[in-house]
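Q: What changes when 5,10-Methenyltetrahydrofolate is included in the input?
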Amino acid sequence: MTAKLIDGKAIAAAKRLNMKTRVSQLRSEGLLPGLAVVLVGENPASKSYVKGKIRDCEEVGIHSELIRLPESVSEKELLDKISLLNQRDEIHGILVQLPLPKQISEEKVIQAISPEKDVDGFHPVNLGRMMTNQDCFVPCTPAGIMEMLKAINVSVTGKHAVIVGRSHIVGKPASQLFLNHSATVTICHSKTNPLSNYTKQADILVVAVGHSDLIHAEDIKPGAVVIDVGMNRNSEGKLVGDVAFDEVCQKAGFITPVPGGVGPMTRVMLLENTLKAAEKIVKERACDGE
Ligand SMILES: Nc1nc(=O)c2c([nH]1)NC[C@@H]1CN(c3ccc(C(=O)N[C@@H](CCC(=O)O)C(=O)O)cc3)C=[N+]21
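A: The predicted holo structure follows.
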């Protein structure tokens, strides 16, 4: 069998097209959705991701502001900046690009963002709301994975989803999201032994570790849906995932490429969350009878 490719890039592009209509609708109601992106320091990867996010906003008509701070910025200065953004009505979403320099506590920074503007979905309030199946901002990568599955008509209900990786931004929230969608969920991590005992049982396998060639053909169930969240550079400097793509391709039912899979979906879900934040304001206005 040869797996069908899940074209995250194309799915994301189609979603952006739809979003233009939602932006027009918001604008006709007198609201321009706005996203603030805070970039601290000069990390080239962070700069390039942030540039991509700004470009995405431009494409769909979301107002974006890039706030750049020096590597040496103090925690207090960053927290003050966030507090100003929290207060501004034209800003509906706030994203502070991670990682942050050592002198700054990421935990404190995330908690300083108003949960209503936390379009990354990293604030404990949003994570807690997700855990109790309430309306919330879902972190962009897990949300993007769900959107991909929807786009290829794969139902999650009753499936065995195996998540490899337990990070706060991907593995853990992805596990919770699959559980909320009534999957049977197994979470694997660096102490899971042997890993392949679990991955072989997956109907849907999500790999978010950051080690290339972690998953081989022998580690998966024939026909499985394989979602590769990994982003690694190989010896030739090329971007590769955590899954040995060429061989797993021969056995999986569906597989995401790297690049062009999860990454573009992560980006588009940031726009989705920003629109959701803005649409909520319009709805609240309507309820207030303004
Ligand atoms: N507050 C915060 N929120 C984030 O969402 C966040 C973050 N910090 N810090 C860094 C990570 C990483 N991340 C990526 C998103 C899309 C691609 C992406 O679009 N990748 C392309 C390839 C890009 C390339 O070629 O380098 C692809 O997979 O096709 C990559 C990486 C978001 N992150």
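Observations recorded in class: The chain has two domains: 31-114, 140-263.
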